[in-house]
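Let us work through a complete example step by step.
Step 1: write down the sequence.
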Amino acid sequence: MQPLQPGSPNQQVFSDTLLELAQRDRNVLVVTSDSRGSGRLVAFGKQLPAQVVEVGIAEQNLVGVAAGLASAGKRVFAVSPACFLTARGLEQIKNDVAYSDQPVKLVGISAGVSYGALGTTHHSLHDLAVLQAFNNIDIVIPADNFETRAAVEAAIDHPRPLYLRLGKKAMHHLHAPGTPFTIGKAIRVRRGDEVALMATGETVEIAVQSAELLAARGVSADVLSIHSLRPFDETEVLETARRVQAVVTVEEHSVHGGLGSRVATLLMQAGVTPALRIVGIPDEYTYTGSQQEIFAHYGITPDGLATTAEVLLEGRRVLTR
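Step 2: predict the structure and record it as tokens.
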């Protein structure tokens, strides 16, 4: 495999793509909660000032206004830090968007632990859990610039409410040009037959790097980019889990209620039983530091994932001897 090529932050790709779409369609609107700078929407505001609604630091109002505009036929992207959007605005997301079936695109920026040392108040480790508990809202977490652009292009005509989760770190390119992208369909980044690394969002890049380490150690690793938690690609997850000995899920989220919980529940109910480990942020006061330092602390690194995979495989071999 060739070295990964550097790209841009997914948030920048989101804003660039949205600007292109909005220049062609005056019905595309952005609603922000004092988030033009952090959402990289300054250029959008300068070029299309009539297509931006600024509500200030008022996330509940943000969601309500977005839902109202969507009900009037506008294509609305509501942009706010994920930690605040899915906490302060949670009731409005539940009632004004999901229950009322308004096709608002809720964009949670600087998600997970992107804010690093700002700490727990600025981390969004709950958003996937709470939104999966709501009926009628799709959830997309792009891994790289390709997935981000494709997700925004798909979202513009998506008929249902949708939550788009983005980080602020510059990402490497993971996919070849022309790779198919469909909301609800996982993408296989690498094929292997001993262990499957199933990841979402910015952790997919780490899973790919881990697979490279495992290959050097003689272990064949499969990597799935599961960019959609709803709709969820049950078929691909089950087919992959049936042909490997171990599955490691990886996410920038609590180990409760995110990707790992979704995979574990699916495998248990289907009677598919590879060795399984959920890697994410455990149920404790979160370690304080940069995103990279937090990842390292919790083993969300190429070597950390490789070691986790090797331990699972060894345990499975002991059980089957």
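Step 3: interpret the result. The chain has twelve helices and 14 strands.
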